[in-house]
């Protein structure tokens, strides 16, 4: 592998540039007119502008990205996360242009992108899934029958959904009919595919995902879990590894299930297997993400494995040299997503110029960010300024380092989620580790908003 095109922007583009620099691989950045001043453009070996600011005219333009790849004669494309990362057609076009797509095959992306197919694929392999309809439900009568069978409350999910979009909850037959039609309509509007399926709704679960790595030679490893229960409106705010809830025994069981799921899918490269875990510790597969995720650094800091380098190695056809038994989970890492949003105003986006910037550092602190003093956060993309990761030998150490680092972080000119993270870090409920997907809502209702 000699040259890689990075089909992304922001912190993940920079993260990929850094991995390539360490591997001695040349980089080609592609960028929109809004990102001329971006650090990933400045630090890449070459850069090509692919269009105007809106993503649809730049970062989502398959034709322009493939043209840039051909002009610069790259060997591979790294899609990062978001944008084209889980677009099977894009992966297919890369393959037919003789460019390696750094990720799983187009057919695996397509299969796992259909959440009903993903579910039945892993179910057949013996991995437990949430009780629900047998695949998509077509008519209201069929849907109602499935809802009655699995028992209320139920959740109606879009087959083309994932990540929480297009989901509706129903508590009885009467609300079910209404929610079913809303879900179908929304799915059709948002995804252009109105197909939905039904699951029993697990109340207050933990959202725990497993990182997996699979090479092209049949070896599949899991790198342990990340607890992503701290989310707000399906946007993760804080992720940590290991999960304070997962015992070594549960980790073994869930890790085996994750590897089985990846194997059933014919998975290659880095991926994430998502589970819901109930208070008893029973766990259920819900979906698989076929990309590198935002929160990958917590796994890197716990296992000391560079996931981006592994993705590139796997795409080059290298064998994974590590064995499962040698992967240790002796460190604790936590990540806070620092967004340009105003927590006191319902997390309203706060784009603009950062007129003073000082990032924390020191022992056990990592900052993955593309911003700098004087940088203007454009309004066209997501509002992430960066990720602050703190780690140590145990959870307590990681938490005190995170607290210390949040206090050091200076970002002037835009509102950020830093004060909100500070408030959570002080919260005894969070500190206890007894956290579920309801945590943020519950915290907001009891915390005074002048805390952030
Ligand atoms: C669920 C669930 C409860 N029961 N499925 C959210 C993200 C997506 N990957 C799947 N999600 C969920 N699936 C069953 N069967 C709870 C969630 C969920 C959630 C649902 C509604 C509102 C907020 C939520 C936050 C986290 C997880």
Summarize the SSE layout with pairings.
Blueprint: E1 3-6, H1 10-23, E2 26-32, H2 39-43, E3 46-51, H3 62-72, E4 76-78, H4 88-96, E5 100-101, H5 106-113, H6 115-124, H7 140-150, E6 154-162, E7 165-170, H8 173-191, E8 196-200, E9 206-214, E10 220-232, E11 235-241, H9 248-265, E12 269-277, E13 283-289, H10 296-303, H11 307-315, E14 332-339, E15 341-342, E16 348-349, E17 352-353, E18 356-358, E19 365-369, E20 376-377, E21 384-392, H12 395-408, E22 410-412, H13 418-426, H14 428-432, H15 439-446
Parallel strand pairs: 1-2, 1-4, 2-3, 4-5
Antiparallel strand pairs: 6-7, 6-8, 9-10, 9-12, 10-11, 11-14, 12-13, 14-21, 15-16, 17-20, 18-22, 19-21
Helix pairs in contact: 4-5, 6-9, 7-8, 12-13
Bound molecules: ligand MV4.
Residues 130, 155, 162-164, 167, 199-202, 205, 207, 231, 234, 274, 276, 286-287, 437 line the site of ligand MV4.
